[in-house]
Please model this.
Amino acid sequence: MLNKYPLWKNLLILLIVILGFLYSVPNLYPDDEAIQVTSTNLSLNESDREIVTTALEAAQIEFFGLEFDETSLLLRVNSVEEQLRAKSAIETALSTGYIVALNLAPTTPAWLQAIGAGKMNLGLDLQGGVHFLMEVDIDAAIARRMEDNLGNVRTILREQRIRTRGLNLLDSTQLEIRFADAGDRSQARAELVDNFPELQLLNREADELYILDMRMTPETILQIQRDTLLANRTTIANRVNALGVAEPTVQQQGADRIVVELPGVQDPAQAIQFLQRIATLEFHLEAELGAASLSYESYTTPDGIPINVDNDVILQGDRISNVRSTLDQYGMPQVQINLDAQGGNQINRVTRENVGRNMDILLNETKSRTITSINEAGEEVEESEFYEEKRLISHATIRTALPRTFVITGLSATEANELSRLISSGSLAAPMTIVEQSVIGPSMGQENLDQGFRGVLLAAASVVLFMLAYYRVFGLIANVALIMNILLIFAVMSSILPATLTLPGIVGIVLTVGMAVDSNVLIFSRIREELAEGSPPQRAIDAGYDRAFTTILDSNLTTFIVAAVLFSIGSGPVKGFAVVLMIGLVTSMFTAIWGSRALVNLIYGGHKVQTLSIGGGHAAAKADA
Model:
């Protein structure tokens, strides 16, 4: 029968529309102003929660909806003013080592959250926040790698009892080893060539000494640059996630820069302090009994036991490729560490020759703190000061030679998770400086958002009025399909395929509003042509949808390809526009062809029809005849 969908197809379309409505509804619920507290070093505990709540009560700040676990504490307040007061009170009450960030908490009902329905993530231009352009010190990363090589060369030569006349770093990419005779140099070269495949070894003589130069090749330097950028970008992304920022942007720009955008972050100073935190993991052996006092430093384990740690670094943390907290075969916690090829060779050699000794892991952090001083004019001046902090995070006995993948045991579940988190969030492979910073206030973002949605409403209202006036009942059908399309776009961007809505994305929605009815215009025009040629109404409807389908598919497919190219090569605003356009093309195909067809079938299908209310008096008159 013409213009009659089977029951299953009608139910499927109805189900999709209902799901679109449910998953777009959360966007009607405004967010609450909130404060989020996380720790930079340790897990949160009950005492931290009590300190925070006591500080707020003392400041007479009302709060509600407190959410607390080992990783973060979040509480809601009634206004932006109380949010700022709460942040100040909490920062005063807590010691250093905590991040107190302004945040927004959703108010979506629990039953909607239970089915995975949430709000759209808003971009920096709509929600406000901070934008940073950070430059990575590649030279420092290369120098650090060469210092690491120097320490390992010294260890190998000492273990092989090869005498030298000194080891020196000539620059960040080259070191030299001096020998008294050529035999020692040849023996050293044979030992080092396999352990340092990324270095070029060259012989030379000077001042009656036999010298072995070890230089980084251009390929190695380029690889270090790539690895450093990737490691820093990953570390920054992990740190941003710890801030609880929804849909942040962390992207590489050029050869040595990283762009960081944090929507919803209203405190750039706190973000700077957190992002620039420099930390380095170092693997050491415990100092031997009777070792010279200058060859080691003393640290204390979490249990208060003093440990003397040898100064020589046997492995740097940048050699770690992956880490995770697991359980052993007896259900006891452990931390599994994977090293890259070079790190695997280093750790295997050192541990093979030091079975029975203890290995220590140090976390060396470069932190910043604000120092307030009085200048000559008697005014308070705040300056950032960097300082180093080292602490022992693991002390374990070497039972056997370690391969590239090994585990650290003897930890509690909390200690294992903490160690895994510290290594996973990682250390910056090289220092970073902020070369560009901009702040977008939430009021400006809200203004953009309000104007954008007013634009969407105005565009939709204009299209609705035109379609009603020009296509009558069929225009009403197209308008219902348009509303369905907008709901589906919001649903897909909110929960089904989470994406970030930016100002260019709103432009994409406005464009989609026009394109959504474009398919119906093609269909309706084809129906009117069929009516003008004398086709019966039912056959005109069927022919209109069938013959317009190919044109609609071709048009939307070519536009989708263009949007996909924009998404793949673009960044930031371009990606935001492309994402919304691609989603809108897919949903408009569904609503304009199958959604509107189901409504037409409901009104005209299954019974004899004499006339169609589709506008264009000539075509309608033909149908009446």
Observations:
- The domain at 32-105 is CATH 3.30.70.260 (Alpha-Beta Plaits).
- Confidence is low (pLDDT under 50) at residues 618-625.
